[in-house]
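Example record

The entry below shows one chain as it appears in the dataset: sequence first, then structure tokens.
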Amino acid sequence: MMAMVLFLLPCLLSTVYAMRENRHDLERREGRIGLGLFTKCRSAKCNDQTFEFPGDLGGTLAIKDCQVKKNQPFEGSDHHRMCEETCTVSLTNNESMTVKVWRKSGHGLQECELQKGGHYDLCRLAKCNDQTFELSGDGGTFAFKDCQLNQSKENQPIERLNGEAMCVETCTVLDSNEKSQTVQVRRQSGRRVKTCQLMGHDLCEDTCCVSKCGRSGQSKFQDCELKGPVTIGIRDFCVEKCKAASSGSGSVDVLRPSGGQAFCEPQAMDFVEQLEKDALSISDGQYGQLPLMKAVKVIFFLRKVKEDVLGPEFQAAEGHRTSREISTEVKHVAIIGDLHGQLFNLIAHLIRIKETYKDKGFIPLDGSSLLFCDPRMQYIFLGDYLDRGERGIELLLLLLAYKARCPKGLILLRGNHEDPDVWDDYGFGGELQHKFPYGHLFIRQEVSTLVSLLPYVAVVPGNFMAMHGGITPAFVKACTGKAGRFGKCLDRYIADMSAWADPHKGNGWIPSHRGEYIYEFGMDEAKAFLQSNGLKGIFRGHEQVETGHTSMVYDGYYVTTVFSAADYVDTFCRGQEPPWMFGAAGEGNSGAFVLVDLTDGTVTHQAMSGSKTRALAAQFTGAKCHGSWLETGSHQSRSIESFMQENHKRLAHGNTSCTLDQTEVDSFKEEVRKILSTSKDQASQEFEARKLIDLQGEALTHGESIEICRSMKKDHITL
């Protein structure tokens, strides 16, 4: 019997197993699995397992209270028998959420998997409060405030972006006008605060949106109004018109960068105060220490003067753009000649002019300690503000600041050095490069455009004309008999050539040492021209004068030369010549100005030595020269040989192979002897010799056909 059982048992077990497998196949085909007694899902095994939950309230959380809801397992993707459990999870705000997990059927602990497709990336909280964002242009930096979550059904994400669940919040911001505005903000669902992105809005993103210079923190301005944008170089700025809170003056233009933070800088008034009082205090080449000496500020200022002052004046003078007529209201005229970047000379002359007229009751220019701005008073500057000197850009800026604040009170004439073609040879180009390493090309362009708007001649009808150089044959031919109204007869080419002309003591026209096509005019020519226009004289600059001024008179008609640069081509602090200055052309000369009383015809000349102008400027500004010389006698003048060598070094790029024939040599010797014979002593002779050498250098700049080496040979003859 036992043997029979042992024989049939394997067969019975094999049959049962085959029947079981057939049943599984049938159930699998019918979409269900029956696992029998030992493979059912009977107990929860996922308690305390942790998962990384997405969504606003997510994080690394443990599941609890798991229960098996269905005993029957299901087949997983890899044909494993899987059990499903329903658990709870405590979220970060202590709320509970029901989740479903899967695990394999089996004994012992099993790794549980969070059921896919569950809505765990819910939008539950506002998370954008105090986040900041920045708009382009003048929009600035904003912070989101009072944010509220935009609710959706069952807190589901509002949208999905690139597969990520996105939540939307409604927040408020303070716009450019500091007014509250509602905006929509989008962020990614998640426990950690994500970057909140501004959606549709009406906030300003223009270059300039609103006035910012009168707000708290900018208390030096008030009642500001936005004027508009301006581009300087590659940066955008905004211009506002404000009242200066610290004074009772009128409105001033204020510059600030486009953007959220307002760093507001005043212009013309600020330039006057800094240049009058502080510029000379900057020594040892540290010119950038002056606050206004920033390329952006200088470019903006030059543009504003061009657009608001010189441009409109130029347009209003249509048909008279090369000439200006002095108003009949004017009773007193101050005439200042060449300054060539010597700011200390200008300050000293203005001090003396103000002292002279202190009892006339003239109205002072607001913000200036040196200038009058009165309809009875006219300043005429004869040109050559640039080149050679130490502070050409500062001097020009001060004169333009005066012009901006008192447009009718100043006439700035154009000289032959208000020309970009000579700036590289005579120093202004190097000065700009040194003082503005990262903006000099923009400044050069602005100055070039601006000086092209300056007139060449100023006329007091029935009295005199003022100009830089003098009359030329073309000038006389075009403008004889015009009653002093030269604007319509004087074209730009004739005016340019007139800036190079000089008088001579004889009669007629003679070639000038300054170059081809340039002539010196005799007093007979001057008389005939002045007489035809009902004028009595010419005030002009352009020429170095040892005493600061000199006059030629012929039958009651005069030509007066005014040269205002005392110690010509020298610095305030002697011995501190900057690298762009190529040497002194006339050390020791005086500088002068002329005062004309139009009520009685009185003409007064006032001259000062270089040491006197330095002393006056130092007393006025408080500037001191450390480790250098202030007085003229403390400084050793360059010899004429040294000056000639420096001049030749500057011109050494030209042809060095040439000859002068004996006739040329003899003729030039005779000219030089004639000029030097009028000098009263050796110092005066050296002064005149420097002039001749300097004129030869200017000729090379002006006329391309003149050989440099021929000029150098003539310099040796002069020496």
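Notes for this example: Confidence is low (pLDDT under 50) at residues 29-35, 632-636. The longest helix spans residues 2-29.
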